[in-house]
Specification:
74% of the residues lie in helices and 0% in strands. By secondary structure, the chain is an all-alpha fold. It has one domain (4-207): Orthogonal Bundle (MetI-like fold). Helix 4 runs antiparallel to helix 7 and helix 4 runs antiparallel to helix 8 (154-160). The radius of gyration is 19 Å and the shape is globular. 35% of the residues are buried.
């Protein structure tokens, strides 16, 4: 197996990049959905909630088909690379960021938006202000997405290939060692994975407002 530090670092790097991309697109979408009022809103919300239950193997298959040689993005040569893993994990993390952010934004008293609009704020400025007010929920959304990404194995295995020294992360390493019957090594890797998750959650608690912690 690759050096444990390299495997752990790749797991952390891929998950962080995936969550950063999911937050980049998901936070504005979540704020919009939480503030929006239109006839088909419930249908959009239902789609987001369904996305939280996306089977990882299905996402892995779709990304695999996109990046395969005969796929529309095959020319990029990203299959069995960390880039493919980031794409798969971003797709899986995005619904969590959007859904939890939308719920947090919707819980903000509507008077805040009305006051800001009365003062001449633009729609973008209102969304930013409401996101700041709902920051506890926003932090929770990002933390949940990170946990989802860090623990992912099915899609990562399909598009990354578990190549030693290149795309092997903690979850796929656990699967490999378990398949070999090396249960002690698998448990040790699982402990490292849980330690990373704990460290991230402790950081999240530090970032939350004191009143919410």
């Amino acid at each position: 197996m690759s050096d444990l530090g390299d495997v752990a670092w790749l797991s952390l790097r891929v998950s962080t990049m995936s969550v950063a991309l999911a937050a980049l697109f998901g936070l504005p979408l979540g704020a919009w959905l939480g503030l929006a009022h239109f006839r088909g809103r419930w249908l959009v919300a239902a789609g987001v909630h369904t996305g939280m239950a996306l089977p990882p193997v299905v996402v892995g298959l779709l990304v695999y088909l996109l990046l395969s040689r005969s796929g529309p993005l095959g020319a990029l040569g990203w299959l069995y690379t960390s880039q493919a893993m980031v794409i798969a994990q971003t797709i899986l993390a995005l619904p969590f960021v959007v859904g939890i952010t939308a719920a947090a934004v919707a819980a903000v008293p509507p008077e805040l938006g009305l006051q800001l609009r009365g003062l001449g704020a633009t729609a973008a400025q209102v969304r930013r202000a409401v996101l700041r007010e709902a920051r506890s929920g926003v932090v929770l959304a990002v933390a949940t997405a990170f946990g989802r990404s860090l623990s992912e194995v099915g899609a990562v295995l399909m598009v990354g290939g578990n190549v030693e020294g290149h795309t092997r992360v903690l979850t796929t390493a656990v699967m490999l060692e378990t398949g070999r019957g090396e249960f002690g090594a698998a448990l040790a890797l699982g402990g490292v994975l849980l330690s990373l998750a704990l460290a991230v959650n402790l950081l999240v608690l530090r970032l939350q407002p004191r009143s919410a912690a």
